[in-house]
Amino acid sequence: KIPTVAINSYTYSMLTNEIFFSNEIEGVHTNPEEISTIVWDTDTKVDNKHRRLESTIRQYKASLQANQRQINNLSDFRQIYDQLLEGEISKDSLPDGNIFRDSFVYIGRQNNTVHLPPDNEQDISLALSQLITFMNNDDDVIPIVKAIVTHFMFENTHPFRDGNGRMGRYLLSSYLSNKLDVFTGLSISTSIHTHVQNYYRLFRDAGNSENRAELTLFIEGMLEIIADGQTEVLNQFSLRMQTLQNGLEKLKQKLPDMNDDESNILYIFLQSKLFTSSGTTDGITDNELGEFIKENSNISRRKFKDIVKKYTGNGVLKTIKRKPLQHILNSEYIN
Asked: Fewer beta carbons within 10 Å, N or C terminal of the chain?
């Protein structure tokens, strides 16, 4: 029952949050508005290697389009790592082995080591080879449980000197998006960030030698984090759908003379405004909106432009970008 433009806008809003919070968990600070801008315009622009996180965003978007990366050999891990984190890892933190790191690292903070992963490339390669076998051949395991176990095994192996957490959450997000739905996949880092201390505790307890590799509690804890993210998405959709309905009613009250075509177009602008990341000016462009109107109604491109021009002239819509041309609904007409 949720309109298409609302779904697309909220998906991009969630993608922005997913990347932002995955970085925040690692202490890597980014600007959500800059992320949102790239999320929206990477549909049309060619790769811009100079923009931070562009490569990361493109990898996430590819996974949302059911282009899940199949991992069949060790070099696949490195290829995903290079493409996902291009420009995000400093030169002195890049892998120092042939594929992975070949040096000591620890997981945790100073004076609070959570886990000591393998300290050489040979042992890392052995652990990830076993993981590949588990990922691709163990069909008796429920997919979501397989995803959680895979996440633990990858993070515990910590094959790179930097970026392991971001890559591990990307793999988990991509898998959940394809096996369940994109909203579950794109809520995982946000939910982990909310429960970050519990997240670290789950890893610490599961890695304790006295647990003898028993992952039941880790799986249960991660399922709770995933379910909490799902619940938040449902709550947000419920809230925003109610706001959307109220906003449409207020538009009709303030603009009683608008016809059905005008109402339909303003309703789409309303969806874009209410389901796009708050605090940003991103959203659907006029060209994208025109294509959607063309495919889903009898309104011509010329008529669409005339309606946008009319409601820009009377202040209902305002121009926020010219290349590409983009309008948003003025807040005073729905508040």
From this structure: N
- Pairwise pLDDT comparison (121 vs 208), residue with the higher score: 121
Q: Please indicate, yes or no, whether the overall pTM of this predicted structure exceeds 0.85.
A: yes
Q: Which residues lie closer than 8 Å to 158 by C-beta, 6 or more apart?
A: 105, 107, 115, 117, 118, 164
Both tokens of 271, joined, read 């969806």
Q: Which residue has the higher pLDDT, 2 or 20?
A: 20
Angle between helices 301-313 and 260-275 (to 10 degrees): 70
Q: Please state, in angstroms and as integers, the Cα–Cα distance from residue 163 to each residue in 64, 101, 102, 184, following that order.
A: 21, 12, 15, 22
Burial 260-299 (b: 16+ CB within 10 A, else e): ebbebbbbbbbbbbbbbbeebebbbbbebbbebbeeeeeb
- Give how far Cα 182 sits from Cα of 61, 277, 326, Å: 10, 17, 26
Q: What is the pLDDT of residues 218-238, one digit of tens each?
A: 999 999 999 999 999 999 999
**Helices and strands (H and E) in the chain: how many:** 14, 4
Owner of token pair 């880092």: 189
What's the pLDDT tens digit per position in 84-95? 999 899 999 999
Q: What is the pLDDT of residues 161-192, one digit of tens each?
A: 999 999 999 999 999 999 899 999 999 999 99
Q: Collapsing DSSP states into helix, strand and coil, what is residue 116? A: coil
